[in-house]
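Person: Please comment on this record:
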Amino acid sequence: MGIELLFLLLPVAALSGWLLGRRDARNAETKELSAISSGYFEGLNFLLNEQPDKAIDVFVHMLEVDSETVDTHFALGNLFRRRGEVDRAIRIHQNLIARPTLNRPRREQALYELGIDYMRAGLLDRAESLFAQLVDEGGSFQQQALTQLMDIYQQERDWHKAIAIGQRLQGMRGAALSPIIAQFFCELAEQALHNGEQTTALRMLRRALVEDRNCVRAALIEGNLELASGDFKGAIRAYKRVEQQDPAYLPEILGPLREVFSQQGRDDELREYLQQILQRHGNASIMLTLAELIRQQEGDQKAIEFIAGHLRDHPSIRGMCRLIEMKLQASDGTMHEDLQMFRELIGKSLEAKPVYRCSHCGYTGKALVWQCPSCRQWNTTKPIHNIESE
């Protein structure tokens, strides 16, 4: 680390010495350069003795903050932050702010950078205070500060404040934040349901759909809520909305739809609906749900024929696994043993496969999450649709 810092600060120290020496009067030039040289070698000695903190103090002291050296401070502070040495970045940015000669734009930049330092250090309350100050001052860093505040409120799960900031940002720059704001309303709906406040939850879901009519999460929560309350018609309407919002999420409604139609004895109607969406989307999850209905109504052989026919045009591992399972029941002897072996091999392969993937960063997992735990993007994690996953 010391050698890397040495190469960074050597030119900084040399530049500062030259700037200060040039600025001084000629009759004091030799004396000043001698003092700078002394400070430079003092800092170099600390580096060589693996005392980088003391070296930083020396070099920062040598860099007088003015219009010619302030950029060097910012560069040095950001470098330390990127390296994970946040405490040093904080010291440099605090040193900048403390200088009375710093003009307003530079001061705002230093406040913003210090706020980022605090966020990186996990000091969210301090960061929030700085960003709120920048917002109130209304300078050139107002929008950036609002963006950071929205991030802070998400981390703190203060969804009301996150919504307010998001709507303010959207009004200022016309950014497409509605899908994200809709997720904040869904979070409030989930909280309300956890507290048994169904009326509040429904109100939050309505507001989510006002923000983003294609919010699949709102439709799923609404469908589950209607199903739990016994409003089967409302549940079906909510679940069917998912196809228009984003058909990639259709596998998420199949289980609840089967429950709704089954409780009402409307399996024929469900079968017709599944056949329609299967023709439109060719999803293996839809095919398997339909195959199970066919098996219940017409027997194993009809279901086997249906699955085999679908696999010819839409091959999938899950479909093949289900076909083998059904053929196992009618087999015996060596054929049964062979099919059993294939079933176990395919089953192990499926167990290792992720079910969901983030389109932004590639994160994969077995459970559906609305905010990617890796890149923290909203609405980017969806069911995987390919031969291996299906």
In short: The beta strands are 356-358, 364-365, 381-383.
